Protein 1
Amino acid sequence: MNRNDNDVKLTGHADDPETLEPELREALDNFKLSVNAWSESMMSRPREAKAPARTNWSAVTKWALGCVVFAGTVSGGVYQNHRQLEAQKVEAARIAEQQHEMEAAKLAKADQDDLMAEIDSDVARQVPSALEPMATLMTEDETEGN
């Protein structure tokens, strides 16, 4: 927006301090003087050189070591639990294997007992199986003769 001089004269506003009312001009001058005085006093006062903030390495070290100890404790517990689970799995597998072996031994013993019973019956025959028909005739004759 461009303002020209005609608009300024018509509205009665101007940026020129001479056209302002004397009380307002005096208040603005006083404000300007106080701002300048404050700025001058702030610039001329002695300043302290601030040292950069120092890190408290002792506290940082304590926190770091505490975190390491905590992590070690937790990981030790997790590892111990893992070892116990693995030992339980190995024990369960060993027990299952023993039971399987015992069942196999029982079956083998039962088969062996059956085989021994069959052998015993074969050996205990008084007459071989080929001569059995004759043996039946003999037993009939003996019973008739007596």
Protein 2
Amino acid sequence: MAESRLRTSSTHSTISVHYRGVGDGSGDGSVHLTATPRGSRDEPPPYPDPAHPMPASLSSPLLHVRSSYAASRTSFSTAPDDLLEDQNTDLAGDSVCGRACFTECCSTMGCIRFVILLCNAVGFGLLYWEYVYWSGLPADAGYNERKKVGLRLAFGCVILFFAYPVYLGDVFYASDTFKALRKMASRADLQNHLDAVARGQPSVTWHMKCFHQDNRTVTITAPDGTSRTEHHNEKVIVWTGEETFHFRGWEDVSPGEQLAPTGSYQTVTFHKKYVLADKRSREAFQAQKEAFVNANRRRDQEYSLEETFEVDGFLPGMVARTRSWSLTLNMGLYVFFGLAFLHQPWSCIIRLGERRISYHHVKKLSV
């Protein structure tokens, strides 16, 4: 996390800006900025103020402006080769064989599944062997003997009554393997999604909140008549607003090559980020953000600024098969092995063919 400090003028406060990889023109999610102006919240705002007019550089967000947030502290990659290298995009895929077997067999969830499976095995075993024993009893068997067999049969039924629905719920509802098979897309669907996001319109929006902390005193009375007083601060939000970065053009500079069809299926995680095309765009970006902050920062004692980046059609991830048909990805076989209490080994076999891929959508914005 990088930090820069700004001293605007004698009538302005000192602002601490905390960048979390975004908000400086190369971000992808949220940058949080918190500042506390000097003086009380009754202090008159700097803009609009006849004694302190807004600089001309801030009145037009698209002019060539040197931002007071010191854009020289940040760096921007503009060449496509630099962008691809910076993304660290893994297009070939990462095999998760060992991780899949560990998740299915040796993790906490794997141990819980083993206990559920063991309970089902005990229940079905009691039912089977006690039924066989019951069938082999002689006709003159005593009442007590038949009662013991009946109790063991009832105990097996009780175990199955609770354990078997839990097992079915895990296999056909909670299992990650089942979710992947049910939502699995085709190879063409994955490529169509990449093309759609490449054509998607990007947008950068700043969300601002102005607030102050109120000291609250609460008196709590217990049933026995004793009371205690608690003091705590409460955040009171008095204003919220947002501003969208205005740019004239954009270009998709995401990796152009297709994802390599490795493994039997791929779990693709998508990320989105933006870069600013040139110096003029970076200065316009900083000028728009600074004008928005300065126009509203004195509405209360403190404020926070959050930045979001959106792309039309963007999804956080997809699961897609690499071939049109695969034996291990057949849902019928999954159901068969699930009902046969072979869910864990079959899930391991399925997930041995999984490849995890990280793909970055990159938009270059220009003014």
Protein 3
Amino acid sequence: MHHLKFDPASPLGQRIVGLFNQIKNDIEDGDGWNGVDVVEALLAWFEALGIDTDADAIAAASIASPIPGPNGHERHERMVVYRAGDRSVPFGTYSTRAAAQHHAEDHARTVLGADSCHWEPSEPEPDEEQVLYVHYGRAECGTCIAVTPISVQERYDLDADA
């Protein structure tokens, strides 16, 4: 069983899962992972991310540099955290959607007595809030329990909301 330390629903998480699944499904043979094919898949993955594998190592300063926004001002990357809870009471805030969902599902089973549950987006956007639906036998009920992504900025940006 996987114990992911990243959000597989995020754009970066989807890329990581895609690389892993490519290796598991297309490269792995009966004896494990073929090293040459894994290296080729990893090099292609780096290329798709815009990393020149023939260039020097990426300096930490270039990673921390602000990314220019469309108006030429600095744009600071935002960290996203995920809050689990009902509409009025937060259960907890987590670095991954999966961890927040796990907390909410545990609440639904232990407090609400649900047999099982599933998630549906409350908005058509896949990175938006997701709402928990619980099952009692054959009956399905919507809840006020949700996992909501929250953007956290590194510092105050006057133009962020403009």
